Amino acid sequence: xxxxxxxxxxxxxxxxxxxxxxxxxxxxxxxxxxxxxxxxxxxxxxxxxxxxxxxxxxxxxxxxxxxxxxxxxxxxxxxxxxxxxxxxxxxxxxxxxxxxxxxxxxxxxxxxxxxxxxxxxxxxxxxxxxxxxxxxxxxxxxxxxxxxxxxxxxxxxxxxxxxxxxxxxxxxxxxxxxxxxxxxxxxxxxxxxxxxxxxxxxxxxxxxxxxxxxxxxxxxxxxxxxxxxxxxxxxxxxxxxxxxxxxxxxxxxxxxxxxxxxxxxxxxxxxxxxxxxxxxxxxxxxxxxxxxxxxxxxxxxxxxxxxxxxxxxxxxxxxxxxxxxxxxxxxxxxxxxxxxxxxxxxxxxxxxxxxxxxxxx
Length: 361
Prior knowledge:
The chain is an alpha/beta fold. 29% of the residues lie in helices and 28% in strands. It has eleven helices and 17 strands. The longest helix has 17 residues, at 117-133. The two termini are 41 Å apart.
């Protein structure tokens, strides 16, 4: 079995720590390791290092090598420019499956936290066994919702259709995107919806078939790229043809058009959290909602339900009489906002494009 971890996002909702020069997946959000490093570690020892691939952008090759020197260079699949996920998956799965297109491949992401590592690896193994029996399928790995999130997508799943080693498989009914609050509560109460993590196990051959059927232009361009892979003209062809493909999500290009019988769903609680925003990171690390989550030199009095991250060793951050705040201090910027106002940060940071405020000093 192979695994590919996608690490090409920019993460503007974690500004001012996450910037275009060094996005969130490379920053030390938890302890002294990046979420990319943690994503690789949670696959060990069940995966060999030569079976773990990283999909990212050429701009991040240096930092990936610094953080993951143990990953073979040939396992870095780098795009020459930022596109949405569909072209990246088409190219990555094509490269991984050149020698064995029917081998199971796990598609994973670099900016998540998973507390139940052992269960997570067990699920991957069980999903791989299912794919070995049914290589023209996708096994979605979904998560039991902890609360009615309006920031996550959902998978609508049906009745149980089988199980292996205590892990159940369910019918796949549909994908649902970020719902409003009322709909999210209905999803939670129904017991028929799970958080869509973007994790799944499939084969390169099946994904190639899906692109050929549902996204022929991406497939055509990708075939040219793959034909040049390993040859002297690969980089030239890659830059030329990758730049021509449509920037579209994998959900829009493939999954929305997928025949429901071609997928099954595993729904478990693996202690998963998306740390794509400061309030999500707080939710992932807190024991109780009123608890403060802090990092660095921080002194607080009468403060609750706040996240305070200080990345300057020579500076003390002091907070008094604060509730539900996000405070992040870096070398060149300080973010101060209410938790409820954090959705506005992404839009605000878009105004910094092309300025010194999107780069670290």
